[in-house]
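Example 3.2
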Amino acid sequence: MTDRETGLLERWRAERPMYAAWGNFVAATLTDAVAREIHPTTLELFLRIPIKPRTKADPSLLAKAFRRGKPYADPYNDIEDKVGLRFVVLVSADIKIVERVVNTCPKWTAVRARDYEEERRQRPYEFDYQSVHYIVRSKDELTFDGVAIAAGTPCEVQVRTILQHAYSELTHDTIYKPSVQASPEVKRSAAKSMALMEATDDYFMKVREWLDAALAPSREVSAAVDRLYRSFTGLEPQSSPLDMLLIDHFGQWAREGFEVELRQFLDDKGFLADRIRERAPVDLLFRQPAVLMVYWAIKVAPRSAPENGPLTDEELAPIYSDLGLARPVAQG
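Structure, written as tokens:
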């Protein structure tokens, strides 16, 4: 090992904890901001792969600094991806959400190091590796997890779709590395797969647009009952898949002006807040914002609302009782 390699590694080993802390800070800050941006969608649905900041291994850092033919004037400081993290999302439109968060965080400066959309505009007939890369640098010195982080410390943030990620995992370490000379047939097949991925992403986006339009009424009802549940009960809802099942079924009784009418209904029956608070600790149904929709639908259509619905007679019984209604007897 040469003196310059030894010197670089000594500095890297001393500063690696700082870079690791900076990567963890960037990951935590971005995930919190993205979660706010996409609410009520959850991070578990938005992110396809868990975020895991990684620092460069010693051999990888040495190879990049001295063995890859890049004319670094100052190898240690010029290498900006000593720590990095990756956001993997479903479709290309989701990349824009992460980019917006990256670019608006006040804790760092962000410079786009690679933009696949710009590369496609410049070379429209080529189908190649795609990803958005940013370098974010801390604006000021800060401390995270008990570790001091110097101002200007860089972290690479990659943002890509799950299809782009799959392509990169398959090909990027082989086809595009100078140590491997892939045959023209392999390169051609890789280009065709990238072209297919772009087309697939376009189709995914069209499907999402159709689904978003189809689900828009349900989402409006969901947002309304979520707001009212908080203000009416004073509880923080714990939404689960049951919530959407309730919205999908009982939401058909949400007509125009529904939120105003539901608010008036709740004002008239303020005692329901006590009933919900009493049952919420032991019954998942009463921790769902859509339970308000269930009350409303049964009040509007006591006979037809529960038909073919997701709730059993036993689950519906306290709601009918609260409203002073008798549960309709099924006709046999």
